[in-house]
Write a structure and sequence with these properties.
By secondary structure, the chain is mostly helical. The chain contains three helices and no strands. About 0% of the residues are buried. The mean pLDDT is about 85.
Amino acid sequence: MDMKIKNGLKILALFLALFLINILVFNLLSLLGFTLVLTTSSYLFPPLVATIFCTTVAYANTQKKKENKDE
């Protein structure tokens, strides 16, 4: 497979994993007695921000490795 497709699938898998963890945490907290309201911003926004952050950090690390390798 093409490297871009693999990277895209990794990013999608990361988002889905974080999304499911977020939903499980919300369910666990509701079972413990907390009153939670699941809105779009409460269950989609945190995994989305974390995915963007992790992708940006990974991209920066690969750029640093390429620069160090060229020197």
